[in-house]
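hey m, so remember when u said the tokens were messed up on ur end? i reran from scratch. heres the input so u can diff it against urs
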Amino acid sequence: MAPTKVNIDLQNERNKCTFNVEELTNFLDEGPQNTKNRRELEKKILSIKGIRDEIPEEYLSHKEKYENAVRKSVLLYKAIKDNNDKNTPLEEKIRASFRNVISSAIFKDNSPFMLHNAMFLTAILGQANDEQREYWLKRAENYEILGTYAQTELGHGTFLRGLETQATYDSNTEEFILHSPSITAYKWWPGGLAHTANYCMIMAQLYIKDKNYGLQPFMVQIRDEETHMPLPGIHVGEIGPKLGFNTVNNGFLGFNHARIPRNWMMMKNAQVLKDGTFKASPNSKLVYGTMVYVRVTILNTASIYLAKAVTIAIRYAAIRRQSQLKNGEPEPQILDYVTQQHKLIIAIATAHAYHFTVRWLWDLYVKVNKELGRGQLDNLPEMHSLACALKVISSADCTALIEKCRMACGGHGYMLSSCLPFLYGVSTATCTYEGENTVLLLQTARSLFKAWGQALKGQPLSPSMAYLADKSPSSTFDGTLDGIIKSFQVVAKGKLSASVSSFEQYLASGLDPEDAWNKASIQLTNAAEAHARVLVLTAYKTEVERKTVTLSPPLKTVLHQLLELYFIFWTLEKMGDLLLYTNLSEKDVRVLQKRYEDLLEKIRPNAVGLVDGFDFRDEVLNSTLGAYDGRAYERLMEEAQKSPLNAEPVNESFHKYLKPFLRGKL
């Protein structure tokens, strides 16, 4: 419900809106009932006494921030547990949770319980057999234990075969002996690991009678359930302050010949029998299922971070007046400057692009997951490739645009109270966790490289790469949305062809395949990024056209305007590639530029309505600049008064240091 007093400029913007904002919110929530459920949960949680900070957490010490985050996590997750509907299938719960952002009203920098839900539960589901799942999942869902997921090590992250932690089977005692043979083998980064979790799912190299059977998942108890003291053979602690996630309690974990029972190896996809016999998985990639799941959800995380940032920036741009367009006239709202619209409206469109793309990808993930349960592995490679490519560009695009939103707010965007620095801090982390972006592009490139060879032989390709087999000749540039997708496909094919050609030339020059691949890797990552652009453009267009059929004409119109804006923006951004590989002409560019500027003008009156449609509560935004009422200046001053330094007119440092210094007596 809107406050009674709203900044007049912001209210005027809302009066201009041509569509029903509530209809947009229902559409993004995938139904009015979902909107109702989400709002009821938000209201219920925010009514819990003590769950919101009275003093901004940035004024607390590092230790105090963690302790406060644990206190609030207990309140939040108890409420979430009490609200849990056990009759709803997990896939539906996860999809419904894509728009549930209430935790960011409680934590600016996320919760130390974050990985318990995001990865620990998922890892149990994906890696445990029926008997293990019955025991571990029940305990974890009831919060009888708190867990995390530990894969990355101090010395290796994305290169999984390089992980060093060892799990050696002892058939005499039917136990695994966990050991970190070097400092680089220490697990590093898992959220909640340092002082919060008492259990951990780890990935370790399995050894049986000195033979390595590759990475396998193991459940490990790291702290006593009663005293919370680290168990024998466990060295655990916190890794220290970071750019973001400073209340997540990221930790390190080392093993000194710690022992766990044989049945604590997660045995859904591979098993070790009592006598030490190893029964292999039908596909070694199945062990990485948790990573694929998280990469899929990162698209949603990135789009939510961006949606929050652009909500703040658009509302601030509507109330901030600066300079003069015409002499003798009042200072205009900075949202009236086309350069400001260029910075921000594409951020709205991008948040929508990934909102729709992740739902398309989630449906595919659920389908492939069900196939895996039936032993069908055919679509797993494509799912892995899609998750890699889309994780990369969603994290990169959204992070870059969050920074653009911050800069679009001028100096005030630099204030922590704007929340924009926090959003950048947590968003830029998505570019490196669950696979560093360049490495994931190279993984995508390997899939494309293989597909290119299949296309040349006339063999069938996966649906997302089928366009590589298209041999139709290039024609005049087509500026329709389908034509733009076709042009981006031509670019991706051209870049892939060029990179394959370079690889083959390096091979012919005498380089071995690994060195030839490394020499061609810049071109290969460019080809993978171009392919990812094709995926997003295709998914965004398909989903908008499919899902907006029943919407009112005004809302349908503005959603299609955003879609077109997104397509033309990227066409202009990738002009060099299109000039190189397609028949794009100077005349085409001028037409596209005019279309882009006209679209900005058309969308401009609906800018505030569009961000209102994201339906973020003020508590969720946590921003002095982005509140619904537009009282940015008043809120900045109110927040400044909360500084402990303002509690007294003279700080003791004056008498202790400044006064003696100024009088030459220091």
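this time it looks ok to me. Residues 1-29+290-459+485-634 form a domain with the Butyryl-CoA Dehydrogenase, subunit A; domain 3 fold (CATH 1.20.140.10). if urs says something different then somethings off w ur setup not the seq
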